[in-house]
Write a structure and sequence with these properties.
511 residues; alpha+beta; 13-stranded mixed sheet; 22% strand; elongated
Length: 511
């Protein structure tokens, strides 16, 4: 017999005994399942992708079949990365995930429950078998008269009257089964699925198939989450493993998202690389490593040295608005020309940062790393051209940042004040305190090869098409007078007489 099936059968027996002697245990599980399904609603596809990435999948296939009312996600990977017995147990009991919180995108074992809001039946095909979780399976288990837990069809022996009584007592919906859908699986052999290959030689080791409810709103939600708007190409920016996502429906392939790393440069603890996603090049600066401080108890609990991840990503054409990422986008909107990712501490639904009042403040630590990456990104932008320009200045501009990121907002403002991002006429960069600006006309004049070293504190003319705003700052009168005199000395007596006279008249008015 399949050893995986044997182990899951033993697991089923253990939980059957528990539920038989303790009604509170399955009612509590039912309550958690209902609550978590609501918390994670709207992120179902992301939760499925998260599981695939944690299973070291390189390729993923998402398939919607409107005829059969199913949506499935299959992933490639190593045979040892198939769905595990510990993974099954994490479905039976929330907050019991086998994933390491330090190496996986997801670690709470909770997001899978979001699928319940879409469907009443979930099938997991892996390890040459099929595990079915459904409202029907839950009801059959709850009402089965076979009390011996070692038997395949054993259950709790409740009657319909018992169920109705519980629903009334707990104020559940009248048609509620009052037992968690993910509380117990039906186990069937399915030798023909696992490790099968398609025409593209993809070795699909796990497939999760959902039979969704015949509700137009649910189909609409599914279609949105797999659309270009709901699942855009940026989804592959920060994932650890997935390189290709194939999206299909009953008519064939809808679209494919692929990524590959084109260039990598290691800079001590930082890494710069260029990632191509569907033909678009992204510049990415990354910092990853061990936390400098963490209690021994927590390290022992995790059984691994805790590690962090921080990245920024930008295109050569600036972005106008984007979301903060924790591998996947959150609901925190940032008006920045780059995308921020970090291993932030976030709420249960992974949509908002947790406010840390005491102890080691993980989110502040990650934001400090992000600030360093921004500075390195600016240096990278400035090094691309010999002549200074306004690109690094625009790169650090922000607008209406949310309160969720107050610590980061303050650090970013400090960086704007201290970093040399203002392009000088002599092709260097100046800080906010050091630059001089009168007008675009004078900036253009100062760029002349003869005069640019005289006016080395002068910034270049603004990019009007980019609506670049800059505050005027002028030389002290005595300094300006000296610079104008030097300028006049450099002007030729003959060929540049008109230039000298015009300059004297215009600039003399500034004295």
């Amino acid at each position: 017999m399949n050893s995986f099936i044997e182990d899951v059968d033993k697991l089923r027996e253990i939980y059957c005994r528990t539920y038989q002697v303790n009604r509170t245990s399955f009612l509590a599980a039912f309550n958690r399942e209902t609550r978590l399904a609501e918390d994670y609603n709207g992120r179902q596809i992301l939760e499925l992708l998260q599981n695939a990435d944690d299973a070291h999948a390189k390729n993923v296939r998402i398939k919607l079949n409107r005829i059969n009312n199913t949506i499935s996600i299959a992933n490639t990977g190593r045979n040892e990365d198939s769905f595990s017995v510990a993974g099954v147990e994490s479905l039976l009991v929330s907050d019991f995930s086998p994933k390491s919180k330090w190496s996986s995108i997801g670690n709470k074992g909770l997001g899978f429950r979001s699928l319940i809001s879409w469907c009443d039946c979930i099938k997991i095909k892996s390890n040459s078998c099929c595990l079915t979780f459904s409202k029907e399976v839950a009801y059959n288990f709850l009402t089965s008269k076979i009390k011996d837990p070692s038997k395949k069809d054993s259950g709790l022996g409740y009657s319909d009257d018992d169920i109705n009584s519980i629903n009334m007592e707990k104020e559940y919906k009248p048609d509620s089964v009052c037992f968690p859908i993910l509380g117990i699986p039906k186990i069937d052999s399915q030798e023909d699925f696992c490790y099968s290959k398609d025409n593209n030689e993809n070795n699909w080791i796990t497939e999760i198939e959902l039979t969704y409810k015949k509700d137009p709103e649910i189909l609409k939600a599914i279609e949105y989450q797999i659309s270009e708007k709901g699942l855009n190409d940026n989804i592959l920016l920060f994932l650890n493993n997935i390189k290709k996502i194939i999206i299909e429906d009953e008519l064939g392939t809808i679209r494919v998202i692929t990524s590959q790393v084109k260039e990598t440069i290691i800079d001590e603890e930082y890494t710069f690389f260029v990632k191509e996603i569907n033909g678009i090049l992204w510049n990415i600066y990354s910092s990853a490593g061990e936390y400098p401080e963490y209690t021994k108890d927590n390290i022992k609990l995790a059984n691994k040295t805790p590690k962090y991840s921080a990245m920024i990503a930008w295109k050569d054409t600036n972005l106008a608005m984007n979301n903060l990422y924790t591998y996947f986008p959150t609901q925190i909107t940032l008006k920045l020309p780059f995308i921020i990712h970090g291993s932030f501490k976030i709420d249960t639904a992974r949509n908002h940062l947790i406010q840390e009042d005491v102890g080691f403040k993980n989110n502040e630590f990650i934001f400090d790393k992000i600030i360093t990456l921004i500075e390195k990104g600016i240096r990278k932008i400035q090094s691309k051209t010999k002549e200074s320009n306004w690109e690094s200045f625009k790169f650090i501009q922000s607008e209406n940042l949310p309160q969720d990121t107050n610590y980061f907002n303050e650090k970013l403002e400090n960086l704007k004040q201290t970093l040399a991002i203002y392009p000088a006429v002599n092709n260097t960069y100046l800080t906010r305190d050091a630059y001089i600006y009168y007008s675009d006309e004078w900036s253009v004049f100062s760029c002349n090869e003869k005069y640019k070293n005289i006016y080395c504190e002068m910034v270049k003319a603004k990019n009007k098409e980019d609506h670049t705003e800059i505050i005027s700052k002028i030389y002290p009168p005595d300094v300006l007078k000296q610079k104008i005199e030097k300028t006049l000395e450099l002007m030729d007596d003959g060929n540049a007489l008109g230039e000298r006279q015009g300059f004297s008249m215009k600039k003399g008015s500034e004295l």
